[in-house]
Fold each of these.
Amino acid sequence: MPVIRVEMFRRTQEQKRDLARELTEAFVRTCGGNKDAIKILITEVDKTNWASGGVITAEKQN
Amino acid sequence: MPVIRVEMFRRTQEQKRDLARELTEAFVRTCGGNKDAIKILITEVDKTNWASGGVITAEKQN
Amino acid sequence: MPVIRVEMFRRTQEQKRDLARELTEAFVRTCGGNKDAIKILITEVDKTNWASGGVITAEKQN
Amino acid sequence: MPVIRVEMFRRTQEQKRDLARELTEAFVRTCGGNKDAIKILITEVDKTNWASGGVITAEKQN
Amino acid sequence: MPVIRVEMFRRTQEQKRDLARELTEAFVRTCGGNKDAIKILITEVDKTNWASGGVITAEKQN
Amino acid sequence: MPVIRVEMFRRTQEQKRDLARELTEAFVRTCGGNKDAIKILITEVDKTNWASGGVITAEKQN
């Protein structure tokens, strides 16, 4: 505890490394606690599996 | 808000497109709110990773 | 399978009843399968526990 | 997208406000994207509903 | 890692204590690993927020 | 209901089969209910997508 889960589109491994470090630091800074107890799970979502406004992201035209 | 997440076995992209559209419409019809605020996340699950009654679906015999 | 989970702000029991029925029908219509196998889990979220743009919803001014 | 969900023990509203702001800033800093698209959902968990090592936290003696 | 989450109707604290212990033991027995690394999160769901077959459980007649 | 979800690193199919059976039995033993109603969803997580203490597991040195 705590567990932080991030659902996002694909990122590079370097971005994920930086994200994990900075989310952990943000948690400790604002809520306290032991840094080692903070778990982060990243789920990378395909644009074919995410929709907003009823439209799949991969099929949006803009 | 709201976020609707669907965990299901694999479907075609056309089915996912129709599902996202119809779930969104069903939400607006029954609960109101702004269609664009509705987010849908589809997770397709392998039959090797889902069990009911203690038996993995991919290993069921029927 | 499938499991549909909805995270939303509080609604009346009548709205939740209608939502469950219509999401289930939308799933069967677009993806097929057995209506009885469709499970829906509604999570009602306090506005103090949801943020967008870095601001908790309950504290937004508009 | 993205959606960041935090499961943690109870915190004050001020801590949750700071957490939402800082997690959002950490995401933008490391992964880019539009700050307004970042959604955060906080779930506060009772110590009677969380276990590690097979023991419910509320019942741990130390 | 691993994280085991259980969504179920309300149970007594004694049942949750036994459940956490036995799920943890079942994991170690079948998948190995360090017992202390196993985290369990129990979510108790109201029957007004769960549906199957399109009908909210609290409203089912049987 | 209930739904048990397990997030863990990759395991063999035999381990997942045993895990599903034993988690289901553990639930019935401690909380009762109908075995067939118990659903289990396994999510296998890459070590590049899981962090503790702010460090991605795949990048830890030990």
Amino acid sequence: MSDRLRPESESTLAATAAELLSALRETPPLTHCITNTVVTGFTANVLLALGAAPAMVDIVDEAGLFAGVASGVLINLGTPTPEQREASLEAVAGANAAGTPWVLDPVAIGALPVRTALAHDLVAARPTAIRGNASEILALAGLSAGGRGVDATDTPDAAIDAAVALAVRHGSVVAVSGAVDLITDGHRVVRIANGDELLTRVTGGGCALGAVMAAFLGAARTTGTESLVAVAAASLAYTVAAERAAMRASGPGSFAVELLDALASVQPHDLAAAAHIEERAL
Amino acid sequence: MSDRLRPESESTLAATAAELLSALRETPPLTHCITNTVVTGFTANVLLALGAAPAMVDIVDEAGLFAGVASGVLINLGTPTPEQREASLEAVAGANAAGTPWVLDPVAIGALPVRTALAHDLVAARPTAIRGNASEILALAGLSAGGRGVDATDTPDAAIDAAVALAVRHGSVVAVSGAVDLITDGHRVVRIANGDELLTRVTGGGCALGAVMAAFLGAARTTGTESLVAVAAASLAYTVAAERAAMRASGPGSFAVELLDALASVQPHDLAAAAHIEERAL
Amino acid sequence: MSDRLRPESESTLAATAAELLSALRETPPLTHCITNTVVTGFTANVLLALGAAPAMVDIVDEAGLFAGVASGVLINLGTPTPEQREASLEAVAGANAAGTPWVLDPVAIGALPVRTALAHDLVAARPTAIRGNASEILALAGLSAGGRGVDATDTPDAAIDAAVALAVRHGSVVAVSGAVDLITDGHRVVRIANGDELLTRVTGGGCALGAVMAAFLGAARTTGTESLVAVAAASLAYTVAAERAAMRASGPGSFAVELLDALASVQPHDLAAAAHIEERAL
């Protein structure tokens, strides 16, 4: 997979996203998640609704093996028990050995020492993608002490320098979630202004997006799409579904239900029609 | 409880299922679940909706004791942490000592070594029932290396020989989930063609059925119903509720919500009216 | 914060509850939960819907630190793994050192030895509030062997002596959940007759209330409201939302969804209008 993307217009990006969504549904990527206990069920449901095949394998002596056969891997640090910490390192080694793309979600690092140390070990293993809110990306880049939990206390654009630095340092695509998502590979930056504020009122609204990125990266291996585009496609599909869900929801409870229905019903051609994307060279 | 069932027509089986559902609601069976972190909440909600009393006790030095006082026990191997592995062995010992019926759900065994070893240890303790998809049942019988996770890559009828072999070897009722559920005690086979494809789009759709089987087996102790019939009754009640839910759902998110409502509202007499059951001697 | 409350009428209590709900939404209290794997997602969603900021930090070497910066802490013993047991003790030490209010929910103690021992250790550290059903409160006070799991097998009023004894012994507000919630600080008793039976058909219906109490206690630090009133306000807001949800629900599945929507939409002035509260000196 090349790390270089030919200049292309936003509409081309949305068109590629549409193709990736079709590819994902045709051959559901086996998406291996090591994620926190708060959001495991919701994350699996998001992947199933979208059309991917989730598997939550966070057991030592299984995770490494499984990462080798999976299409994509998510490592989310929300509740990093000792078992999960060891399984995460094992999974990353297995993924890297097999060339499986993997996503690091450094939940709430900065103030919390155990996950912060683990995140630094993991990022050194060069994740295909890193997803976090601005506070987490700043903390991972060493530019901030982090937020006060899973809240973003900074806006994505406040983290652009940190995101670019991480992308260059580790060869990763870095996605900063917020009202406008910011995604960079260190050379170009994509901004996506889709989504809805209700995503912040559902636990796992951000965590599940990391899993969707792993699924899209898995699908992208088959189509030969580069990682920046795959990560942007995941964000676009997810946030367009969120917009459709928000139109039907009466609050955060019904929004979560509608989001799953929308992830299942959103069609590739809907992505281009709804996309609010901007892509620029840095 | 006898392991022999008098020959009876399908309508008799549905009638017995209806009686069991009434009995379960009259005296909610305390259903002890050791299950994976992905589906604990959904599983408990399925049991509560149906009318059973769930308790998720997966702690060493508690699980064995609790299995002795529970009406039925589920051991699901979806995320078998060291704590859960030890608690599972303890619970099975407690259940067997007390005569509590228990269900083994060997999630994703075959390719994953830790749970595969545990499943073989557990099955040797003679579960009252074993529930899995075709790949898992084939793997447990030693006839396949298993699927690629929780997906069934084989149809239930592809696993009939494996199911019968397991049933005979361990004295268990074996239930193979799929588009048509197959349930056997090694002497007879019941096929149930109820349900809906949306069950495969909700995480825990299969895992929660294992818990429902444990609840029905608990209720069956009181009524003296044999295990094959109790397991079939659980499948029937669950899949009939799923059909009713699917009629009202707009996608996988709303289906999960409607399934819980349907499990609460389905009445004993609905089972016979909706049943697509076939029962045969082997 | 004073442990003494000036005599005030029920309408004053509802008015204070309304003010607290406003304060909570204006400055979302960071609510640190160590809770069981069955209800983590639902609990976080309840807090987010209401307007609080949940963080589920149950990792050793993080939990103590985090309890020091959180606004309120919940320790729920539903699935007390070794990691969570150590993290709970650490969190309580951190909370007490920082003056952070904390809630103990002794789920299913009495019959289950590991959590019962832990609950006795924790209660000795003088929780700001204790929430449980009647069986659990009786067991914690040493007056009963406990229920058969998370069911209440006794009514709240059967536990009034136990609740008062615990309140006096440990300087805690004690809340006994049931059809009529009973809340006491050992000097006065508040009874709240709001809520709906559907809360008992959703897993986490009680556990999430413990988290809401931690959030209200966090908000109460800012407003200077005393703990008895904060705990009563949490119960009132939660049960009034439950009543509104029940009016729109068709069963336990849709009730859980509607409850989240109602927690987000319930307004401070709705509390006084709907309150069925009684407050008396002992």
